[in-house]
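Teaching note: in complex prediction, the entire set of molecules is handled at once rather than each chain in isolation. The prompt given to students was simply: 'Predict the structure of this complex.' The entities are:
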Amino acid sequence: MGSSATTQHSLAISTAEGEFLARYSAKGLCGLEFPSSARSTRASVVGSEPSRQVKSWHALTAQALDRALHGSPPGSLPPLDFSVGTGFQRSVWRAMRRIAPGQTRSYGQMARAIGRPKAVRAVGGACGANPIPVFIPCHRVLAARQRLGGFSSDINWKRKLLAREGVRFFE
DNA sequence: GATGTCGACGTGG
DNA sequence: CCACGTCGACATC
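The expected output is the structure of the full assembly:
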């Protein structure tokens, strides 16, 4: 066991959309991965048996993900571990968490919201670095004029999540 | 509308 | 230093 490595568990969540992978550090949920298109990787667990705490976090995550995939508010979440991000990224991620389901913001609005009105593309970069999609709702950030904009993982997930929340957008 | 250009800026190499 | 992003404003056709 590497003493320096943060203890981390990867646990699967099976949904109607496929198998997500949730990662936990000692601080909480630190990553979420969309179902891999090539469902070859079956790396469900890493290392030792998850602690009781991780298990209870995971139960919350699974429940919340189920709700989110139906376009509903996620309810209780485990603590989110942002510690992997830079200061700038964390400020963007925090701001994104304030966007309610069914609402959207533009990259420009997000840039203004964190006090860096010109860092528009940098906001896009921070979205792309989002380790916990869905719960840190980068899919609710659209380009100007309600245009869909991009997505670093499968753009279809952005479309799907927005559709589930009843959001109208332009391609 | 559809393109093309240029500016702005955090991040990783 | 350089290139690259889930961009935006503007110019031009």
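Point out the following to students. The CA atoms of residues 8 and 135 of chain A lie 19 Å apart. The longest strand of chain A covers residues 18-25.
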